[in-house]
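step=encode ok
step=design start
structure_in=
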């Protein structure tokens, strides 16, 4: 290890600031290091900065998940609603790094929304503000049940500005505001906000994080309401006593499952562990399914489906699947809430697993990008990076280009923005599915040129064409979309010699374009599947292979029997496919021509005289003749 590398490892170990990473480069220049040493030091610096950024991202994600898990733990032992809401607002402000965070609740009687909890606020007017439905950013969120974000509140015309609300916001000095709805079922009960006194852009992950906190806040309010209902029931004398007796076991099970789910989260359990714990507590069979029955309203509530109960597992508007409780047609209300809370914990576990999975897929994509764009990489470093991803780049691989078909026309009634948004979402979905497929096959995948490129190992029984067809079927089935895949010729050793990969990618893209032009969208193929068109796609053209695939059976028959069926074919096509003129050119009887053509049909198949096949056969005859003449010369 060089001194420069050791210096950067020391900086990483002590968590130094970004500015400190320039010092080894400056010292090297000051000591008169040569250009090669400076380049190596600069490369080490960039790698160290990349590692530092990855570590920072992981620390941030760990902090976010820890805060979400702590909030779930608070809910399990909920006693004071205000304390839980204050904790949610405080954690939202801390994790999003904003100056202010606050939570408002709807007043169904007054028909407006009012401030309930604030953190970082200094204005008394702001802390007491009330918003009519549809007024201000918060009123718009409460009315539409959708998150809204503004980088500059007073310059945003998407919502209604009123004097009292603008005065309160101006008094607080807020500029950038993000608001997400608090949902109980399909009903909006309030809004959770994060805001800054300066312009800023809220990332998509920050919106999803705040939405998760909002979901916890809604659960806290719902749980408090349930506790209030229980307290009210206690005052109903004998009837209240009967209700308590009936539901005591259910409440104990709810408390037990809350504790067990919290323990599972803290010790890193999985989705199957949640289902097993819930099955035991609810005395039934609980399963997680990615393609389970959908509820009529995706509102976070558990719902009946025949004799089963279903709770949707979702986060940030994305549905991951559902928890299904089998064979319990009658389920107590508290048990329904238990199933819903288990679904929420499941979504947190899946988000954590996806975060780790996405990080690995990005690393796979970066390695493939380097193989395509930076062909002078050190083979040893390529092999080390591939080994960490459980990929062997010293065996033959095939490059595949994939694209989803059927995007809407940008000029259609849906509008160019809708079409662009759909295409962008499709590209992301395709990359995600292809990355999962590549990981299961020890390959690589990356988003590129509006589609996805894959580098997959070629198995002993695989061909580029079979691998392309299999990839098209698997991706199409996963996405439930038509996916077209073009394959390249094999690349012997991507790590040992990455130079051919770029050309192989271009070949795969040409094959993909040819499939779409030929009306074969949704299929997978290599150049060898496209007949003489494959000669134009392959680089270099496989002329001998094309001739063998097209008329190889006839040539082999002539060699075995000493016949001249190739000559008969040539004369037959030269005479305009007329047996009468063919027999004159060959000086044989017309019956002899008929017998030979019948033999040719058995060798080439019944469709050999169709326009498409006859064109390929004539081209193969011409190439075979040229090849034979060259060998004679």
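sequence_out=
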């Amino acid at each position: 290890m060089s001194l420069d590398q050791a210096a950067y490892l020391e900086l990483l170990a002590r968590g130094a600031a970004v500015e400190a990473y320039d010092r080894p480069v400056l010292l090297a220049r000051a000591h008169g290091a040569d250009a090669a040493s400076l380049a190596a030091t600069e490369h080490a610096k960039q790698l160290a900065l990349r590692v530092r950024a990855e570590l920072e991202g992981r620390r941030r994600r760990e902090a976010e998940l820890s805060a979400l898990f702590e909030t779930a733990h608070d809910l399990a032992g909920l006693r004071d609603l205000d304390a839980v809401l204050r904790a949610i607002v405080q954690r939202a402000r801390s994790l999003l790094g904003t100056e202010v965070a606050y939570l408002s609740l709807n007043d169904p009687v007054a028909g407006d929304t009012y401030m309930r909890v604030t953190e970082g606020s200094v204005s008394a007017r702001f802390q007491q503000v009330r918003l009519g439905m549809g007024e201000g950013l918060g009123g718009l969120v409460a009315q539409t049940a959708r998150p809204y974000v503004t980088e500059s509140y007073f310059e945003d015309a998407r919502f209604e500005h009123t004097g009292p609300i603008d005065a309160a916001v101006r008094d607080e000095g807020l500029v950038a505001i993000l608001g997400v709805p608090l949902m109980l079922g399909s009903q909006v009960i309030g809004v959770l906000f994060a805001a800054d006194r300066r312009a800023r852009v809220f990332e998509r992950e920050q919106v999803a994080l705040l939405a998760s906190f909002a979901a916890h806040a809604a659960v806290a309010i719902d749980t408090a309401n349930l506790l209030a209902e229980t307290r009210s029931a206690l005052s109903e004398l004998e009837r209240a006593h009967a209700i308590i007796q009936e539901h005591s076991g259910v409440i104990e099970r709810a408390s037990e499952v809350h504790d067990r789910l919290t323990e599972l989260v803290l010790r890193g359990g999985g989705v199957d562990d949640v289902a097993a714990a819930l099955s035991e507590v609810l005395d039934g069979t609980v399963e997680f399914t990615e393609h389970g029955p959908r509820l009529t309203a995706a509102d976070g509530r558990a719902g009946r489906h025949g004799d089963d109960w279903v709770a949707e597992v979702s986060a940030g508007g994305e549905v991951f699947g559902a928890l299904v409780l089998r064979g319990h047609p009658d389920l107590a209300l508290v048990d329904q809430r238990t199933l819903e809370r288990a679904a929420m914990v499941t979504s947190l576990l899946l988000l954590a697993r996806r975060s780790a999975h996405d990080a690995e897929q990005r690393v796979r994509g970066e390695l493939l990008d380097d193989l395509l764009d930076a062909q002078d990489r050190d083979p040893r470093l390529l092999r080390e990076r591939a080994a960490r991803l459980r990929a062997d780049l010293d065996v033959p691989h095939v490059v595949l280009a994939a694209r989803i078909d059927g995007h809407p026309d940008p000029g259609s009634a849906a509008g160019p923005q809708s079409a662009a948004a759909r295409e962008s979402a499709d590209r992301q979905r395709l990359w995600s599915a292809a990355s999962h497929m590549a990981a299961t096959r020890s390959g690589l995948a990356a988003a590129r040129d509006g589609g996805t490129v894959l580098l997959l190992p070629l198995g002993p029984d695989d061909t580029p064409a079979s691998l392309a067809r299999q990839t098209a079927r698997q991706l199409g089935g996963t996405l439930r979309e038509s996916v077209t895949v073009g394959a390249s010729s094999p690349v012997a050793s991507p790590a040992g010699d990455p130079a051919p990969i770029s050309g192989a990618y271009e070949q795969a893209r040409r094959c993909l374009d040819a499939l779409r032009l030929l009306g074969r969208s949704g299929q997978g193929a290599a150049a060898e599947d496209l007949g003489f068109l494959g000669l134009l796609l392959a680089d270099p053209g496989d002329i001998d292979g094309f001739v063998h695939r097209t008329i190889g059976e006839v040539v082999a028959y002539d060699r075995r029997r000493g016949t001249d069926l190739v000559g008969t074919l040539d004369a037959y096509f030269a005479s305009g496919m007329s047996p009468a003129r063919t027999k004159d050119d060959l000086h044989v009887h017309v019956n002899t021509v008929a017998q030979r053509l019948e033999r040719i049909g058995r060798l080439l198949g019944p469709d050999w005289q169709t326009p498409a096949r006859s064109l390929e056969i004539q081209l193969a005859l011409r190439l075979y003749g040229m090849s034979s003449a060259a060998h004679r010369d």
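step=design ok
step=annotate ok -> The chain has a mean pLDDT of 79.
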